[in-house]
Amino acid sequence: MAVPSRIRDELVELCAGRLWLTAHMQEKCLLVYPEPEWQQILPKIQSLPTIHPEVRRIQRLFIGQAVKLEMDSSGRILVPPTLREFAHLDKKLMLVGLGNKLELWSEDDWYQLLDQPAQGDMPAELQSLSF
To answer: Would you say the pTM of this structure is higher than 0.90?
Structure first.
């Protein structure tokens, strides 16, 4: 996958192109973390109490599927087959910036997500925001 140049330049400056790629814990997409962000979140996930089955499931997905990647000189990364299958990635991809991380979606799944109606009530944390 070729990382768009505007994002690539920021990633090179932030982490010299060193990234961590892993499965999203709730959706069929991948999470892309610059290495400094990954180093902050990994200990939090590792320190969760493993007595709870949902914690173990999250750790298996999030940590067990994680791979360290480095962008090549052309700003490309090679997504491993297991993660490509997990997120249904084919030729057309969507890379979505979320501040401290990115999400990598198949284009079809991304547009399906956008077409879905809102589910349930808006959380109180969002009700106070003005967009």
So the answer is: no
- How much is the average pLDDT of 50-66? 93
Give, rounded to a whole angstrom, the gap between the first and last alpha carbons of the chain: 32
The closest of 67, 63, 72, 101 to 83, measured between CA atoms, is 67
Q: Rounded distance, CA 131 to CA 129, Å?
A: 6
Backbone angles phi, psi at 42, to 5 degrees: -55, -50
Q: Give the chain's domain count.
A: 1
**Residue 23 near residue 32 (C-beta atoms within 8 A):** no
pLDDT at 78 > cutoff 90? yes
User: Whole-angstrom Cα distance, residue 91 to residue 75?
Assistant: 17
At residue 126, the pLDDT reads 72
Q: Which of 22-31, 32-41, 119-128 has the lowest mean pLDDT?
A: 119-128
In a domain, 77, yes or no: yes
CATH number at residue 105: 3.40.1550.20
30 DSSP 8-state letter: E
Work out the number of other CB atoms within 10 angstroms of the CB of residue 6: 8
